[in-house]
Amino acid sequence: MLDIQYIRDNPDKVRASIQNKNLNPAVVDEVLRLDTERRQLMTDAQIIRADRNKLNDQLKSERTPELINQSQILKAKLADIEPQLKQVEENFANLMLQVPNVTLDEVPVGKDESGNVLVREWGTKPQFNFQPKQHHELGVGLDILDMDRGSKVAGYRGYYLKNQAVMLQFGLMRFALDRLVAKGFIPMIPPVIDRRETFVNSGHLPWGEAETYSLTSDDPENNQPTTYLAGTAEIPLVSYHSDEVLNEKDLPLMYAGFSPCYRKEIGSYGKDTRGIYRVHEFMKIEQVILCVSDIEESKKMHEFLLSNAEELLQELEMPYRVLLMCTGDMGEPQMKKYDIETWMPGRNEYGETMSNSIMGDFQSRRANIKYRAKDGTSKFVHMLNNTALASPRILVAIWENYQQADGSIKIPKALIPYVGFDIINR
Fold first, then answer.
1. Which of 359, 370, 387, 408 could form a disulfide with 383 if both were Cys (CB 3.0 to 4.6 A apart)?
2. Between the CA atoms of 284, 179, 398 and 283, what dihedral angle is there, to the nearest 10 degrees?
């Protein structure tokens, strides 16, 4: 959530940023209108209360009909204003949740993925002297993937990982977690059945309602689900320190959250319908950082998160590229975002495997996470997040890059100690 004072001082900049994210900038005008109305009603209510307090003092010494009548008039005025103020404040608060974050100046302006900017490429794409297979062909052939029974049991995009694929997935998670813990990250297994306000805090709601699985609808007043399934450990980790005041000396706080993840993928209907590149449930380790309220420090942390993900792929010897995302291909809460795409020979293209974002104080304002600065002031922390590894998508890249002519799959050297074998074959 943006600071209302920032919106008052920079309405044109906020409108432009919203427009560049392909959203409706008219929300700014409505927010400012409600803000003006809210402040006027607050002032009016304060004046009436002050007059009533003064009048009540007079009534203690003399209760004349005139004073009693004035008191009744003020009481009626307050009874009229207070419901108006309550409704306006509620409308204002709801609308503030619909104002997206403002992008940093270095973010390229673009309508869609065509506006993303290549930052760098790493690694050498494998050259095969045979026709490479797609990951689902490899998986089925090696009896490590069963999509037919997955669809039978779970429906569209359902799948079973089997045999060595199970060991490989857990080996990947431990591989990533070990390296993050060595860098000072606190390992976490957070709850993924979370309250609605937890998703609001992270900025996944209200925008991502259609993409999010809801579990209960026992809120008759608002007719809204009260719990949801998280699509990333970022969601519960953002709220871990909600309504707390931290100390600057303890920052940055770095968390590595391991969790199952759930996404409806409504917006991707018809895309990647074969295989397990795009699925409804998966496992992921997410990096989340809370740091001081300084954009230059956030940029340093952003690059640090990016280097962590790149180092994992480099150790796995997987070709990848880093993209700076344009305004039209990034989420509402983000100020700046990198994507890492890993080469997938079966697709003959890169596929997204990591997403790295600066959120500034957008999430911490929603979650009410502050810190006591060295100068004694209280400030909202800055928050950042980035994928470490997500499976099965990373499995897609490994299977396709490390496939052999006989249909077997070699294991990256870095993973052999974690899985106990060096090849998957029948």
1. 359
2. -10
Task: Cite the active site residues.
Answer: 263, 278, 352, 355, 393
List pLDDT tens digits, range 347-380: 999 999 999 999 999 999 999 999 999 999 999 9
* C-alpha gyration radius of the chain: 26
> Can you say whether the dihedral through the CA atoms of 268, 269, 273, 279 is positive or negative?
positive
User: Per this entry, what is the length of the chain?
Assistant: 426
Strand pairing partners for 322? 120, 340
Token digits of residue 28: 């700014």
CA end-to-end distance (rounded Å), the chain: 53
pLDDT digits (tens, 9 = 90+) for 69-88: 888 899 899 999 999 999 99
CATH of 113-424, one of 3.40.50.300, 3.50.50.60, 1.10.1040.10, 3.30.930.10: 3.30.930.10
Can you tell me the distance from the alpha carbon of 396 to that of 275, in angstroms, rounded to the nearest whole number? 9
